[in-house]
Amino acid sequence: MQLRVDGAVYKVGDSAGWTITGVDYEKWASTHSFKVGDTVVFKYDNESNDVIQVTEENYNTCNSEDPIDIFNSGNDELEYTNPGSFYYLCSFPNRCLYNKQKIEIKVSASGNDTTPPTPSGKVNTGAASTLGLLVFASCVLALYLH
């Protein structure tokens, strides 16, 4: 884990990364406390792995149909700007069902977070939230000055 000004950075599976060999991702996730502003990095061989974000129902059944988002760079950095539970699995055959290559990331609010969860469950990169916050701040300032 690395610390950053805006949050911590966690590499899923630590030195092993995102793979089918010897990592209990449920246990790994349970030993970390993820907060808004943190970044989770999935490092893997993208010829034999990927990361897809799915609904809780699809996570529980290892169903890779109709993913919320697809990541396949081999070095995917996901920063969390909203609290909530986020579900990921590998869509390659048998990786999730037989090898348990899936993970739930539970993100808690930081001390100063007032952003509501993203309705779709997608990871919010923050650009829209930042713009919304700037518009809101401008409106408050305009009301104050009048």
UniProtKB/TrEMBL annotation:
Pfam assignment, any one: Cu_bind_like
Domain Phytocyanin: 8-109
GO molecular function list: electron transfer activity; metal ion binding
Gene3D superfamilies from the UniProt entry: Cupredoxins - blue copper proteins (2.60.40.420)
GO cellular component, one term: plasma membrane
Transmembrane segments: 126-145
CDD domains listed in its UniProt record: Phytocyanin
The entry's keywords: Glycoprotein, Membrane, Metal-binding, Transmembrane, Transmembrane helix
Protein name from the UniProt record: Early nodulin-like protein 3
Organism: Sesamum angustifolium
